[in-house]
Amino acid sequence: MATSGLDAIAIFIKVIESGSFAKASLATGVPRSTVSARIAELEARLGVSLIKRTTRSLQLTNVGQDFFEVTRRSLEEIEAAERALRGSQTEARGKLRIAAATNMGEGPIGNAIADFLMAYPEIEIELELGQRRVDLIAERFDLALRLGELDNSSSLIARPLGSIARQLMASPSYAAAHPIRHPHELNPRDVIGFAAEHSVELFHEGGERHLLDCRGRIRANRMTAIRHQAQRGMGVALLPTALTLDNTDASGLVVMLPEWKTTSFPVHVLYARQYALPRRARLFIDFLVEALEINR
């Protein structure tokens, strides 16, 4: 129904509740002549008489009484929905739907989510983890966390969270049994890598580069599996310490050759440009930026 139709119904309800056209005019701020015209237009559109007019009072017809009861309930529900929507935009409550890469659900990001929910008990988070890049608008996600370069999309706004790099990590027992001073001393068979990576370039803080052979005995397509094998002492893994691990002590891993790292990859939080960002989403983004402190 057009907005003018809803306005006419709202005026009709106010006329009945107040008992007269004059009182409805005062209550709504709409001129009395306009109030009368809106009721006449509503009756003409419906093809029925809603109100019996006398010189002293207004009386509803039978169909008018039925229409009044139904529309008053409906208008109350609409007003309640509007209040709830306004509250969700300005108050710290409601659900956040967030999409992120599989490995982002643990470590500092996972901890930040838990801490955020403890700080804001009226907010809920639905976290979908996976490797695919979701369509925020079509799939109705509030936010997405992305690692790596972004696609050019005018429909999304990206806020940088920082950047991360991978480092060589191993179990304490492996590191003690295989002391090295340079990546070329690593046995390629002991490098636990991603299935899609045959080699990775490492950069020394002094400017030197080294191409690391990643075709080891164990390769996987999930970081959690790679980390698990490193924890078992099966070799050396390239892992993003700043993002997926709380710290090396908690993970049971140590950093080997800390002066060597891979290229840094940017981390962003994305949201749709076409929608007003609710307060709960803004609060989460600010909380995440402060909690992660990536690259510090």
UniProtKB/TrEMBL annotation:
The keyword DNA-binding applies. The keyword Transcription regulation applies. It holds the Pfam family LysR_substrate. Residues 6-61 form the HTH lysR-type domain. GO terms for molecular function: DNA-binding transcription factor activity; sequence-specific DNA binding. Keywords: DNA-binding, Transcription, Transcription regulation. GO terms for biological process: DNA-templated transcription. InterPro entries: LysR-type_TF_proteobact-type, LysR_HTH_N, LysR_subst-bd, WH-like_DNA-bd_sf, WH_DNA-bd_sf. Belongs to the LysR transcriptional regulatory family. This is Transcriptional regulator. It comes from Pelagibacterium lentulum.
